[in-house]
């Protein structure tokens, strides 16, 4: 009789272990969720703030946002973000920072990037070269 009781206890323990293992498996599964929303980079968000500040005429806020966006885009290796920041500085008339942003964009363009961003980079570079060729009084 004692042997039957110990067999029952062992069987019960095995059932508990199996249930615990099943609970772990079930807990580890991901729940089906809605399709993921495309993630917006932090550089894009900050650059949008710069665009908004520029639109309302707040140059210092736009400059801060574009500078933050420039370094975030560089950190994210986003050619489009670096070019967008450079375009923002061009709109502010800050040719020195545009030149620095273009220098940051060159290695990113060489590593790839989308064709639209590369075309915008080339256009901005040409505008920068044309502007620097003008006499300082004409700028």
Note the topology.
Blueprint: H1 2-28, H2 42-55, H3 59-75, H4 79-92, H5 95-110, H6 115-133
Task: Outline the structure in words.
This protein has 139 residues and is mainly alpha-helical. The chain has a domain at 46-133. The protein is 77% helix and 0% strand. It has 6 helices and no strands. Helix 2 packs antiparallel against helix 3. The longest helix is centred in the N-terminal third of the chain and has 27 residues, at 2-28. It starts with a helix and ends in a 6-residue tail after the last helix. 22% of the residues are buried.
Distance between the termini: 104 Å
> Main beta sheet, described?
none
- The percentage of residues in β strands lies in under 5%
The number of helical runs is: 6
- Helix amount, in percent? over 70%
Find the structural class using helix and strand composition.
Answer: mainly alpha
Unreliable runs: none
The strand count comes to 0
Brief summary of the model shown:
It contains 6 helices and no strands. The longest helix has 27 residues, at 2-28.
Question: What keywords describe this structure?
Answer:
77% helix, 139 residues, single chain, mainly alpha
């Amino acid at each position: 009789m004692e042997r039957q009781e110990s067999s029952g206890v062992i069987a019960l323990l095995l059932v508990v272990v199996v249930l615990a293992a099943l609970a772990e498996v079930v807990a580890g599964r991901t729940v089906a969720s809605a399709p993921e929303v495309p993630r917006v980079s932090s550089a894009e968000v900050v650059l949008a703030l710069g665009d908004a500040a520029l639109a309302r005429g707040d140059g210092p806020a736009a400059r801060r946002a574009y500078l933050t966006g420039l370094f975030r885009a560089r950190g994210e290796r986003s050619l489009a973000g670096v070019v967008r920041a450079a375009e923002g500085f061009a709109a502010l008339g800050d040719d020195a920072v545009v030149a620095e942003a273009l220098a940051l964009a060159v290695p990113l363009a060489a590593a790839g990037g989308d064709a639209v961003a590369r075309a915008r980079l080339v256009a901005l570079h040409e505008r920068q070269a044309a502007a620097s060729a003008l006499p300082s009084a004409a700028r």
